[in-house]
Amino acid sequence: QKEVEQDPGPLSVPEGAIVSLNCTYSNSAFQYFMWYRQYSRKGPELLMYTYSSGNKEDGRFTAQVDKSSKYISLFIRDSQPSDSATYLCAMSGRPLTGGGNKLTFGTGTQLKVEL
Amino acid sequence: NAGVTQTPKFRVLKTGQSMTLLCAQDMNHEYMYWYRQDPGMGLRLIHYSVGEGTTAKGEVPDGYNVSRLKKQNFLLGLESAAPSQTSVYFCASRTQETFFGQGTRLTVV
Questions:
Q1: How far is residue A4's CA from residue A91's CA, in Å, rounded to a whole number?
Q2: How many Cα atoms occupy the beta-carbon half-sphere of B2 within 13 Å?
Q3: Please, which residues 20-79 of chain B have a Cβ atom closer than 8 Å to chain A?
Q4: A71-76 and B42-49 as β-strands: parallel, antiparallel, unpaired?
Q5: pLDDT tens readout for residues B42-66
Q6: d(CA A89, CA A101)
Q7: Which of B25, B29, B43, B93 to mutate against chain A (most A CBs within 10 Å)?
Q8: Residue B49: its chain A contacts at CB < 8 A?
Q9: SS3 B28
Q10: What pLDDT tens digit does each residue of chain A (115 aa) get?
């Protein structure tokens, strides 16, 4: 069983929809949670970074962590065609600062926002 | 500001050939990483470095070697390429946020 599970999709939604992307994990040592966006044939770029449980909002994006359920979510409001990409969750037992920190990634969910 | 630059972007190798992938970063980052990305497997860490002259094994190191002779460069070597090494390779560097390169698409036939 993988440490991090993520539905690969593809997920297709109309423009303006609210998108919910999710990951589950099994390692209770994970404390730091990230969402990356990866456009086709590009490298991943960091979208959101959260520590422990709770919500974090940045513009149209909200990251949610429920450590009791080992479940994290990324919500995208008012989705746009430019949001079409693969979204990867990543997590770590250590903060992003400090040496030797290793991230465990989900496989990614492919999202398509249609006009 | 170029960020993280990978060379080459594409390559086709025959089984048994060797090659080196170059990663260069201009952000003065201490920590650098090599990942491979395969369908259904996500990003998996091959090797990493916490500073000039240091390297360490990641999750899938077999068949690869690395060197970090200069702080800004992190090289990934394949001594004898195998079809199982067909993948997209990403280099990354960081202080707090991790920055990824554009990737190298490698096909081993």
A1: 8
A2: 11
A3: 30-31, 40-45, 48, 50-51, 56, 58-59
A4: unpaired
A5: 899 999 999 999 999 999 999 999 9
A6: 16
A7: B43
A8: none
A9: coil
A10: 789 999 888 999 999 999 999 999 999 999 999 999 999 999 999 999 998 888 999 999 999 999 999 999 999 999 999 999 999 999 988 776 655 567 899 999 999 999 9
- Chain B residues inside the 8 Å CB shell of A42: 102-103
pLDDT tens digits, B5-42: 999 999 999 999 999 999 999 999 999 999 999 988 88
Cβ distance B4 to A43 less than 8 Å, yes or no, reads yes
From the list B40, B48, B94, which residue is nearest A107 (CB)?
A: B40
Nearest to B97 by CA among A106, A92, A57: A92
Instruction: State the CB neighbour count (10 A cutoff) for residue B99.
Output: 18
Nearest chain B Cα distance for residue A86, angstroms: 11
Q: Which amino acid is at A3?
A: E
List all residues 6 or more positions away from B62 whose beta carbon is below 8 Å from its beta carbon: none
